[in-house]
Structures are given as structure tokens and as C-alpha cells.
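Ticket #4471: structure output looks truncated?

Reporter: J.K.
Steps to reproduce: submitted the chain below (82 residues) through the standard prediction queue, then opened the result file.
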Amino acid sequence: MSQKTAIPLTHPFEFAGRKITEVSVRRPKTKDMISSKKLTKTEEDAEIMLFSSLSELEPGVFEEMDFSDYIKVQKVIQSFFS
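Returned output as attached by the reporter:
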């Protein structure tokens, strides 16, 4: 099992009856990148699918997330590529 990075949310919210206060993500594997692009039509949808795969959360969590928190998650995941 790979180590996860916890990202605390500035704007916690409710999703599907549970409070989302942080997102924990693992480092991506090549298969995550391939799958996220195969299953979607747009870059935005591919990114949400990737975030969902890395966090084991439903894609809807990222769609409902405050955009400033989304950017925080995005920056952490982008840091895995450098």
C-alpha cells in the first residue's frame, strides 16, 4: 500500500451524507493516467477521474468541492510529477 498525503480543506462540506474535511491522495501510477484519459472526453473530466482514483472518493466530491480547495488538491497532485 502506498503512502498517502492528507490535504486539509479550507471549506469542508457535506457529500452523500458525510462531512468531507480533508482529501488523502496517493502518488499516481501510469495506469491511473491511462485510465483517466480513456474513460473521459475532456481534460477536466480526466483530471476529476484521476483525483477520484488517487483518493478513492467519488468524482462528485471534486465537482462539489469549493474551487479554492480543488486548486489545493490539484497542486499536491501536480507536485508528484516534479
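Triage note (M.O.): checked the attachment and the full C-alpha cell line is present. The longest helix spans residues 43-55.
Status: closed, working as intended.
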